[in-house]
Amino acid sequence: MVNKTATVIRGDGTGPELVNAMLKVLKECNSNSELILCDAGSEWWKKNNGDSYISEEVWNLLKSSDACFKGPTTTIPVPNAPRSVAVSIRQKFELYANVRPIKTYANSNLQLDFTCVREATEGMYSGIEFRTSDESAIAIRKITKKCCDRVARKGFQLANDLGFKRIYAITKRNI
Description:
alpha/beta
């Protein structure tokens, strides 16, 4: 009996190899999920063109699925290339909080237990860029109150749920 469906984007470059390894692990775990394999990324785009690395068919799969596994994808650094697969998906579905738990194993000498929560749809991900000459360009780092508030709320909610006693606000200005 299938409980959930997941779209699996094979990706490009090392993506298909890594996705195949993940699929073997899921098979061994006896997952009751239906996995729907599809293609997206620069290799797909080179063959099909268009204004996105993601086809309309894959967007529809993503909308109807319960989850998505995405293999690594390449973003070609050329003018007018589409936005990356990861950023496109995050912005379309407002997946604004990049949540990264960091915890060491019990037998480690150093004990770490924290979670990094980072805003993942704005800043340099906004993609507001333009040339000012043949030798220069400008990229605008867009930051809104709405997005700052919601990622901060997510961080506080997670800290509360996980029983953390302290929260640190950190900026990473270069991304």
